[in-house]
TrEMBL record:
SUPFAM superfamilies: alpha/beta-Hydrolases. It comes from Rhodococcus jostii. PANTHER family: HYDROLASE ALPHA/BETA FOLD FAMILY (PTHR43194), PEROXISOMAL MEMBRANE PROTEIN LPX1 (PTHR43194:SF2). Gene3D superfamilies: alpha/beta hydrolase (3.40.50.1820). This is Alpha/beta fold hydrolase. Residues 31-245 form the AB hydrolase-1 domain. Coiled coil: none annotated.
């Protein structure tokens, strides 16, 4: 894997993109992975390697102020992360690849779909298309202190027990130290916003959920899937961070098989 920077343009900061070149013949569609709240391109290392081995040119973006990207989360809004994603996707196969978004990244992908019209989209434990009241309730139920932080406009610090079910302690700790305190405005917008415009119905969408998710209730994932007419796959025994948790290979296989079934060709 190699890290490259998408150059700054105008008022937009330079963005980190991690690239895993396809192993052998690149005969499948390029993928752009979009991370969730407080994460960065680093969280996709398992899936980047798996996607490259499956014949994809695989890329992962870090939003401004996250990972190795320039800029700051201070004052950042959802529209800024959408702009970051559109810029990154447009630089890869002119936006005609596949967008794969996790949690907050899934919501960002929903907003990017009508703009760039990718070949397909995958929503992983995605934040609801509508105000994420279910997520707020879930966070309060499982970690009342974080619920208070959310209400007070402070960055959430979701612990390993909220994100993983089977990841070993050392790996979980290593992930925690790489987290970025999230924009308070973005967190607020999760609870007060309007849904993204619906994209073209010709864009195939897969929604992957897990019954053990402590951040996004599965009923919210199902509602979002219905809104997009998405194929839905539900997993068990894996946490919210399904690309990092101990069962990441199972989750990737679900996505990989669906992408193969769609016969999305490279551009």
């Amino acid at each position: 894997m190699k890290t490259m920077m998408l150059p700054a343009t105008g008022m937009e900061p330079a963005l980190e993109i991690v690239h895993a070149p396809a192993t052998g013949v690149a005969d499948r569609s390029p993928l752009l992975f979009v991370h969730g709240l407080g994460h960065g391109a680093w969280c996709w290392h398992n899936w980047l390697e798996a996607a490259a081995a499956a014949g994809h040119q695989a890329y992962a973006l870090s939003f401004r102020g996250h990972g190795g990207s320039e800029g700051s989360v201070a004052g950042a809004r959802l529209r800024d992360y959408v702009a970051d994603t559109v810029r990154a996707a447009t630089s890869i196969a002119d936006g005609k690849g596949v967008l794969i978004g996790h949690s907050l990244g899934g919501l960002i992908v929903q907003h990017a779909l009508p703009v760039i019209k990718p070949a397909a989209a995958v929503l992983l434990a995605s934040i609801s298309a509508h105000p994420a009241i279910g997520t707020a309730i879930s966070v309060v139920r499982h970690d009342p202190i974080q619920g208070l932080r959310l209400v007070a406009g402070l960055p959430l610090h979701l612990g390993p027990d909220m994100l993983f079910t089977g990841l070993d302690a050392a790996s979980a700790a290593a992930a925690m130290v790489r987290m970025t305190p999230e924009s308070a405005l973005v967190q607020y917008q999760l609870l007060a916003r309007t849904p993204a415009p619906l994209p073209s119905p010709s864009i195939p969408v897969l929604s992957v959920a897990t019954t053990d998710d402590r951040v996004v209730p599965i009923r919210a994932t199902r509602a979002t899937a219905r809104r997009y007419g998405a194929t839905i796959r539900e997993l068990e025994g894996i946490g919210h961070d399904m690309m990092l948790d101990a069962g990441w290979q199972t989750a990737w296989d679900v996505v990989d098989q669906w992408l193969y079934s769609q016969a999305v060709a490279p551009t």
